[in-house]
Amino acid sequence: MSLAYEVLATDGAARRARLETAHGAVNTPVFMPVGTAGTVKAMTVEGVAATGAEILLGNTYHLMLRPGAEVVAKLGGLHRFMNWDKPILTDSGGFQVMSLSDRRKISEDGVEFASHIDGNLFKLTPERSVEIQHLLDADITMVLDECTAWPATEAEAAESMRRSMRWAARCKDAFIDRPGYGLFGIVQGSVHGELRRESAAALIDVGFDGYAVGGLAIGEGQEMMFRVLDETVPALPATCPRYMMGVGAPADIVGAVGRGIDMFDCVMPTRSGRTGKGFTRRGEINIRNARHAEDPRPLDADCKCPTCAGYGRAYLNHLFKAKEILGAMLLTTHNLHYYQDLTSGLRDAIEAGNYARFAAEFAAGQALGDIDPL
Amino acid sequence: MSLAYEVLATDGAARRARLETAHGAVNTPVFMPVGTAGTVKAMTVEGVAATGAEILLGNTYHLMLRPGAEVVAKLGGLHRFMNWDKPILTDSGGFQVMSLSDRRKISEDGVEFASHIDGNLFKLTPERSVEIQHLLDADITMVLDECTAWPATEAEAAESMRRSMRWAARCKDAFIDRPGYGLFGIVQGSVHGELRRESAAALIDVGFDGYAVGGLAIGEGQEMMFRVLDETVPALPATCPRYMMGVGAPADIVGAVGRGIDMFDCVMPTRSGRTGKGFTRRGEINIRNARHAEDPRPLDADCKCPTCAGYGRAYLNHLFKAKEILGAMLLTTHNLHYYQDLTSGLRDAIEAGNYARFAAEFAAGQALGDIDPL
Rounded to the nearest 5°, which phi and psi values hold at B60? Predict the structure, then answer.
C-alpha cells in the first residue's frame, strides 16, 4: 500500500483513523470540500484551511476541459496551481461526464463526450482518467467508473457494475505507485446487496488503497442508502479507508459514520452558501427569509466561525438581497465550518466511545428547528 | 472643529497629514475603498484591512434604499452592521440619485426620486441626507450637493453651484457636532475657475471640517481636471483636509496629491477587480487575455499582496474564464493593495521630500508597459 492508514479508535462500526499522504495527514471521519474547477467556490484557500479542512476534492472533468490537465502539470500540478499544499483527492471524471456533458457514448473502452463548455469532443478511458489525475498530482486517485443511474433493474445494475469492475482493474494497471499517493476502487451495484458484495469482492481481488461506495445519494433516499451501506461496508477491508462519494446532508454523514464510513465529499455546504441556505445546530435556515431582515443574532449561536463571530443575520440577509458576493463568501465560510465542526465532533465522540450520544444529540438539535424570531 | 487634523510634512503643494476620527486615525494622502452597499465588493473586512486601508466610503443612496438608514441604526450603525471598526466616510447620496435613480426631480428643497430597485419614491433634502449619515454613524458626513453635469454652460454651472452652496449651509445647520465626527463641504463650479473660487469662499464662510472638490472626473479629461485643481486648491484652507471625490486612476491620484489633495475614493480598483483589469507598477493588464493563460508569473513582480504571493497569472486567467468568484476576490485584493501601496509610497515620498522623484518613477514604470509574454 502506498498510503499509510491507521485506525486509532473504534466505537461500534464507527472508526477514528488517520491517513498519511504525500501532502500531509488526514484525520477521519473527514469531510472534503469540493474544489470543482481548482477553487472551492467563493473561498480563499486560507479561508478553507481555517475551517479545519485537511483535504480537498478536485474534479477531473472540469480540470481536463479547462485549463487542461497538461497545462496544470506544466504549471506545477494542482496544489501549486491553486495554492493548496494539503492533500487533494480527485474524482475520475466519470460522474460529471454523465451529468454535465452533451452527446456522451459509453463503450467497453471508455466514454466519449462533448464538452459542456464548447462542444469539443473528448474521450475518457480508465487509462486516461488515471493519467489526468497523475498530471494533476492528486494524492488520491479514483478509478473511472459508471455511476449506475437510479432506479435501475438488477440486470442493468449488474452489467454497469461489472464493466466498472473491469475498468477498475485497468486503472490499477495504469496507476503509477509512489509513496504517499494512492488509488481507490469504487463499489457499485445500485441498491442490490448481492451486486454490492460482488463488486466489493472484485475490487479487493484487484487490491486498492481505499474503497469508495459510489452510486448513492442519487434519489434512493436515506433509508435505502443506509441499508446499502449496512450490506456493503462489512464486505470492505477493515484496514483501508472507506469513502462515500458525493454525500451529503449532515444527517447522512452522521449515519454513515456510524456504519463505518470514513470519508465524505459534497457540494452541499458550498452550493448552499451561494444560494442562501445555512446549516446550523438547529437545522437549516434560508437567510433570504424576511424574518432575518432585522435580526442581529448570528446564524448559529454555538458556532465559532468568523461569520458567526462578526455578522448578524440581518447583514447576511441584506447581502443576499443586494446580490453581494460577500454573502456567498460569508455563508460558504460558515457552512464549511459547520461541516468541519460536525466531523471534528464525530472524531472526538468516537475517541471517547460516545458516538451514539453524539448522534442522538445531533438529531435532537436538528429537530428543535430554528430559533424563534425576535 | 470636531475632527483633529495635523499636517506632518509638506513637499511643494503635496501634504502628508493625519486626521483623527471617532474610529481612529487616517494617514493622508489616503485612498478610501468604496463599500457601496455596506460591503467592499468581493472582499471581507479583514481582507480590506490587510491591504492597509484605514477608512472606507459608504454610499448613502444605496444604504437608504436597502436596508434603510433606520434599520442600520437599529442594528448599531454601519460599523457594527458591516463589522468594520475603522473610520467611515459616507457620501450624501446626491451623486447616485442623479446617476442611478429613475424620475428624479430637483428643487430648492431637495431631490425627489424613484428607487432603481423597486420604483418606490424617496425624497432627499440636505437635512435628510445629514440625518441618514448620522443614523449610519459616519465619521465623516458629506453635504448634499448637485454634481453639475459636464459639459455645462457657465450659467448652468453657476446656478447649480449656488443651490449646492445653499444646501451646504442647511447641512451645516442640520449636522450634530460630536467629537471625532465631522462634516465636509463640497466645492462645485464645473471647469470655471471663478465659480470654483466663489464656491470655496461660500463654503469657508459656513465653515466645515474638510473641503471636497466635486464634479470632476466626469468626462472633462485629466488635463482640465488638473487645471481645475490648480485653480481651486489654493482657495481652500491649508488647515483642513481636502478630498477629491470619485477619483481615480493611479495617475490621477499621483497628480492630484502633487496639487495638494489628501483624500480619494473610487470604484476603479474594486470594479476592475471583478471585470479582470489589474493595476500594476507597469500599467494595467487584462487578465482575461490569452497571453496569460499559461504564464505562472504573478500579476506584478514587485507586489507583496497575497494574490501576487500565492497565484500566477495562469490561475487568475483560468478563474476569470471559468467565472469563478475567487477570480474577483483575488484580483480585487490585488488592486486594493496596489492603491494602498501607491498612497503609502506617496506618504513616504512627501515625508522624505521626494514627491517629484516618486511621481517621475511612477510615470516611468507605467510607461514601460506589461512584461513580455513568456
Answer: -55, -45
Q: Measure in Å the smallest separation between the Cα of A7 and chain B Cα atoms.
A: 35
- ipTM score for this prediction: 0.97
B315, B330, B333, B374: best to mutate for the A interface, most A CBs within 10 A: B315
CA–CA distances in Å: residue A174 to residues A134, A143, A144, B10: 10, 10, 11, 70
List the grid coordinates of A25: 495527514
CATH class belonging to B4-266: alpha beta
CA dihedral A208, A70, A75, B51 (to 10 degrees): -90
State the sign of the Cα–Cα–Cα–Cα dihedral A237, A239, A244, A250.
positive
Query: E strands within chain A?
Result: 4-11, 14-21, 24-28, 30-32, 34-35, 56-58, 88-90, 102-106, 111-114, 121-124, 140-142, 182-187, 210-213, 242-244, 263-265, 277-280, 283-286
Instruction: Check residue A219 and give left, alpha or beta (phi > 0: left; psi -120 to 50: alpha).
Output: left
Report yes or no: A88 and A56 within 8 Å, Cβ to Cβ. yes
pLDDT of residue B100: 85
Name the residue among A340, A339, A345, A338 with its Cα closest to residue A360: A345
On the CB side of A306, CA atoms within 13 Å amount to 20
Taking an 8 Å cut-off on Cβ atoms, the answer to whether A329 and B325 are in contact is: yes
Low-confidence ranges of chain A (pLDDT < 70): 1
| DSSP single-letter state for residue B234 | G
pLDDT, tens digit (0-9, with 9 covering 90-100), for B66-85: 999 999 999 999 999 999 99
Count the residues in chain B: 374
Q: Identify whether B91 is a catalytic site residue.
A: yes
- Taking CA atoms, B81 is separated from B74, B105, B315, in Å, by 10, 31, 34
Q: Which SS3 state, helix, strand or coil, does residue B325 take? A: helix
Grid cell, residue A6, equals 491507521
What is the Cα–Cα distance from A327 to B48, expressed in whole angstroms? 16
- Nearest CA of chain A to the CA of B41: how many Å? 6
**A41 vs B274, B318, B325: nearest CB:** B325
Cα–Cα separations (whole angstroms), residue A260 to A146, A237, B139: 24, 11, 57
For residue B52, what is the DSSP state? Answer: T
Q: What pLDDT, on a 0 to 100 scale, did the predictor assign at position A101? A: 78
pTM for this predicted structure: 0.98
**If DSSP codes are grouped into helix, strand and coil, which group holds residue B36?**
coil
A102-106 sheet: strands from edge to edge = A102-106, A111-114, A121-124
Query: CA A62 to CA A132: how far, in whole Å?
Result: 11
Active site residue: B11, B145, B265, B295, which one?
B265
CB atoms under 10 Å from CB of B304, counted, come to 9
CA–CA distance, A62 with A40 (Å, rounded to integer): 13
Q: Where are the domains of chain B?
A: 4-266, 276-368
